[in-house]
Amino acid sequence: MQRAIPITVCFVFGLFMLVQFFVPHKLSVLAYENVLDWMQIIFVFTLLVGAASYIRLNTKKVVQTRAGWGYNLVALAGLTVMVILGFWKGTGENTPFLWMFNNLQAPMQATMFSLLAFFVASAAYRGFRARSWEATLLLLTATIVMLGRVPIGNLISGWIPDIANWILNVPSMAAKRGLYIGIGLGTISTSLRIILGIERTYLGRK
Amino acid sequence: MMLKNPSILTLLILLALAPPLFATQPSIDIKLVDTPNDRGESITLIFERTEEDTLEMVRLCSPSSIEYEIWRSSEEENSFQLVGKILSPDEKFIDTGVRDGVDYFYFIKGTGENDTLLSAVFGPVVSKGQWFNTKQTNVLLAVVISFLFIFGFILYGKRRKEFYIRPIAGLQAIDDAIGRATEMGKPILYSSGLGKMDRVATMASMNILGSVAEKTAEYNTPLIIPNYDPVVMTTAQEVVKEGYSKAGHPEAYNPDNIFFVTQSQFGYAAAVDGIMTRQFPATNLFLGTFEAEALILAETGNSIGAIQIAGTDSTIQLSFFIVACDYTLIGEELFVASGYLTRDPQILGSIKGQDFLKALAVFLMLLGGIAGILGWSWFIKLFSIG
């Protein structure tokens, strides 16, 4: 029973989502939007579960003064301060909450994102080392594509942007489409297994 | 649509404007249809003009474009309301302010710099929602064929019990990676990325997690799973608990190792990077949906010397994983992983069905190429959507 009900719910909703894709009628659209609303409602409740897990775990580490407990204290302080500010003065324009978001969280996120530039450089260095025939080919292709994307490539030779475009539009696109077909079929197959209850690891305990 | 019953009001206006209009008599004919393949509450007006009519109207009204006002009423003779305007050469107007099941009438007023033209009253037309989108018939057919193939092979797999699946290096390496972490006495980090449970890649990741949890339970190696989404966290907890029970070590399950981090993309990347640089996991498994944080995670993992196995359905992030990780599950390999690891005959059967569908796709692509060379546009149109 513990498994039969979730599998039945999964089957019914899986089938509904599949059928509604082909039904443009208002009733079908309304039902679909309702399902999406319910997903949002469920998400809010699970967010509470997530927040509870976050608070419990961080508090435990602080109380037990485990290694790195200072980070957990900062995490808890951040959560508490933002919640208090949000409830106290709201989250709109000219509020302390938004000030904290714009001046603390946004720059920290931007910092993490900008690390990507350095990581791309280090990954490219490793990937493009000409250790084998394939790696050399990769290095040459990447060099042409990179030169073809910047004005200096055109200055060196008018052919470079054309070759770069050909590489992107023909061999690269062919490989991508091959991947897309495989991913599409894999998605259909996995979805069918889940709808039919063959794949049920996600349900957890028996 | 036939021109029917010009209203008295319209005729009066027409008479008032008679000299320029009746001298040339260009007509504005429109076809009214219930908008096809829609949810309802919509009527489409299509202008049906001969080239001579258009030229005459342009000559009469304006040297450039004519503005058409669309007037609508649910009664034939009065209460017309302006519902929209279009400029020539547009030939289509979709009126989305109507109710289903009500008769509607329309007339058009064309205004240019020099003159104004009025059409007759057209209608009635009724809007209604459709129960099937005929533009997607080919998609439905493809879905039915795919389902028949996969379902057929699932049934076949049930009877046959054994299928050959080519060795997948990334999946074969999972056992070694877990063994390495056990020998080093270090934990394993598992991330399903930013996907929610409605993503098939996340579902596939949870299926792999089941097998990984079973093996880590056998070896008594800690499995750390930071989560971006609380629903995924709850699912991961259940999956791991089940894995530990299956392995006969339910007592080894530690719920504190599967936790929610944040819903911020780079906040999540920062948290996972922090875990890596503080706890030095021996093995990193990045399986699921990843975006721009993919390389940040994989490069940090690389810098701490962890063995890394990644898999995602994002073709852009795959290239980053290929460069930074030891093994990468490319595209569909992520979806076949659960069958590969569990050897479940039904799942293996569905993978076989998937392979046959791929062969069919290749065959159709070859046919498409030939059709393109021979100019068989009808064949290519069979595959167009929308």
Protein described:
- The complex is a heterodimer of chains A (206) and B (386).
- Chain A is mostly helical and 206 residues long.
- Chain A has 2 domains: 1-89, no CATH class; 128-206.
- In chain A, 82% of the residues lie in helices and 0% in strands.
- Chain A is built from 7 helices and no strands.
- In chain A, α2 (26-63) crosses α3 (69-89) and α5 packs across α7 (159-195).
- Chain A is extended, with a radius of gyration of 26 Å.
- Chain A starts with a helix and ends in an 11-residue tail after the last helix.
- Chain B has helices at residues 8-16, 18-24, 51-61, 137-160, 169-184, 200-219, 230-246, 265-279, 293-303, 315-324, 333-342, 345-374, 377-381, and strands at 29-34, 43-48, 67-73, 81-87, 92-95, 103-111, 116-118, 122-126, 188-193, 223-227, 258-260, 283-289, 307-312, 327-330.
- Chain B is α/β, with parallel strands linked by helices and 386 residues long.
- Chain B has 2 domains: 8-126, Sandwich (Immunoglobulin-like), CATH 2.60.40; 162-343, 3-Layer(aba) Sandwich (Rossmann fold).
- The longest helix of chain B has 30 residues, at 345-374.
- Mean pLDDT of chain B is 86; it is low at 14-23.
- In chain B, α4 packs antiparallel against α12 (345-374), α6 (200-219) runs parallel beside α7 and α6 (200-219) runs parallel beside α11.
- In chain B, the strands form 3 sheets. A 6-stranded parallel beta sheet of chain B has the order 11-10-9-12-13-14, with helices on both faces. In chain B, strands 3, 4, 6, 7 and 8 form a 5-stranded antiparallel beta sheet that branches. A 3-stranded antiparallel beta sheet of chain B has the order 1-2-5, with no helix packed on it.
- Classes of the chains: A mainly alpha (206), B alpha/beta (386).
- At the A-B interface, α2, α4 and α7 of A face α4, α6, α7, α8 and α9 of B.
